[in-house]
């Protein structure tokens, strides 16, 4: 225990770790000296295999990270370094020993003491933990690159790997494993193979509905040679949502009942199932999870748009359907950074997924979705609305951004979220002000979305 308040405060003030803490917050921490410990040279701070789950920040001195008998030193940590965060975040036993190399002063926080700190201080600690984890991963990444380069120099590979496709260059051994920000976006955009093509049926429908004279009969011709699509449309037509209950037996009959807009909407949603229905390991989504959520958001966005302007319905439905399509492209990048994402959510359990994407990747899935929609030549208003649906207040009053944001939020609150990692969702209050909805709208829209999803998802999910 350190008993002198004045001895600790100057140390904290010198450490970059505490730069974001205010003078008042620093004062609060040092007011309780039970957080601080002094260790003699050779004294063990953490014993391998122990169940202690405290977090440590070194204020002065150095420690060695060792394993077993301690003959091999894996790392030396100094003032400002964190250790013990893995057990603190994940409730696991200690995987290494930590021994004082000289006299050490450390801030030691167990779960109880950590929760006693103010919310602002806890949040700043969590941010610092994430920064340190990212820095450590970057260091390990660079070391791996160095080792790969050394191995390549010593044991050079052929210019083209055995079995590689003609014309495809060998992988660059010195390329960093994890890139982010604009560099990662450039990689995604330049690699056209990573950008999925718009489903052919959806493309044809989008081209046809641009012409005012398109009839339901013309739309039905697109799908009449696709037995699975025809079966799906008939199943939806006879579902409880539309109320025809077994009375519709041909695609021509269904087309006449639905009308051009509704039929185009159903064909689009079903054709999108092949793209949106895939399992995504990086995001923790099972097959069909995102498709089901996307349909709910499309339905709700259409309802919101209809209450504002009938002309906005088609754009709102399409934007709602495709609002999360960027996850398809980002999923492998999220999966290979799964350790970073897991640590982030452990430290920030109340933060939404897009915050983790921005902090770790440098951008979120909405940005990539907007780029993909531009690549598909969808109207600019749709791609813009999708790009800003998580931050509609930054879209300069763009109504579709607010509509998709509200539809996404309502769907999640109604139990129609995609699930997976960080399923929490935060409402941007500016959207409530930008789009005026009646007091009964939320419940009505949620009920319609539930029935709509139930009517559609049987085809893809077999439910």
From TrEMBL:
SMART domains: cNMP, HDc. PANTHER family: PTHR33525, TWO COMPONENT SIGNAL TRANSDUCTION SYSTEM RESPONSE REGULATOR. This is Cyclic nucleotide-binding protein. Residues 195-392 form the HDOD domain. Pfam families: cNMP_binding, HDOD. It comes from Desulfosarcina alkanivorans. CDD domains: CAP_ED, HDc. Residues 17-117 form the Cyclic nucleotide-binding domain.
């Amino acid at each position: 225990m350190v008993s002198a308040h004045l001895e600790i405060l100057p140390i904290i003030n010198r450490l970059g770790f505490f730069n974001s803490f205010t003078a008042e917050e620093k004062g609060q921490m040092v007011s309780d000296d039970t957080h601080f410990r002094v260790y003699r040279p050779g004294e063990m701070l953490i014993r391998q295999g122990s169940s202690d789950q405290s977090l440590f920040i070194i204020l002065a001195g150095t420690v060695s990270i060792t394993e077993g008998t301690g003959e091999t030193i894996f790392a030396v940590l100094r003032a400002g370094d964190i250790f013990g965060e893995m057990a603190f975040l994940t409730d696991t036993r200690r995987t290494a020993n930590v021994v004082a190399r000289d006299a050490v002063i450390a801030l030691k926080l167990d779960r109880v003491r950590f929760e006693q700190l103010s919310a602002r201080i806890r949040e700043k600690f969590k941010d610092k933990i994430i920064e340190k984890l990212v820095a450590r991963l970057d260091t390990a990444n660079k070391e791996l690159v160095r080792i790969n380069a050394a191995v390549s120099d010593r044991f050079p590979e052929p210019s083209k790997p055995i079995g590689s496709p003609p014309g495809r260059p060998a992988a660059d051994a010195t390329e960093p494993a994890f890139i982010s920000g604009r560099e990662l976006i450039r990689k995604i955009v330049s690699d056209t193979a990573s950008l999925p093509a718009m489903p052919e049926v959806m493309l044809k429908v989008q081209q046809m509905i641009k012409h005012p004279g398109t009839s339901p009969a013309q739309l039905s011709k697109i799908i009449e040679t696709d037995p699975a699509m025809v079966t799906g449309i008939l199943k939806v037509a006879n579902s409880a949502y539309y109320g025809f209950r077994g009375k519709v037996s041909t695609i021509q009959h269904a087309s006449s009942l639905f009308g051009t807009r509704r039929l185009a909407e159903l064909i689009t949603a079903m054709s999108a199932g092949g793209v949106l229905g895939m399992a995504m390991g990086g995001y923790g989504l099972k097959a069909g999870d995102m498709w089901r959520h996307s349909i709910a958001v499309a339905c709700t966005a259409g309802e919101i748009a209809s209450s504002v302007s009938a002309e906005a319905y088609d754009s709102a439905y399409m934007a709602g359907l495709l609002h999360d399509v960027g996850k398809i492209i980002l999923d492998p990048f999220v999966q290979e950074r799964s350790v970073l994402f897991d640590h982030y959510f452990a430290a920030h359990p109340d933060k939404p997924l897009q915050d983790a994407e921005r902090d770790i990747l440098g951008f979120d899935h909405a940005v990539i979705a907007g780029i993909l929609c531009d690549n598909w030549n969808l109207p600019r208003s749709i791609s813009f609305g999708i790009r800003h649906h998580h931050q509609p207040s930054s879209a300069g009053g763009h109504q579709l951004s607010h509509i998709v944001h509200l539809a996404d939020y309502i769907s999640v609150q109604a139990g129609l979220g995609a699930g997976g990692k960080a399923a929490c969702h935060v409402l941007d209050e500016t959207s409530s002000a930008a789009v005026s909805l009646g007091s009964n709208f939320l419940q009505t829209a949620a009920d319609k979305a539930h029935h709509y999803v139930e009517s559609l998802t049987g085809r893809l999910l077999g439910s």
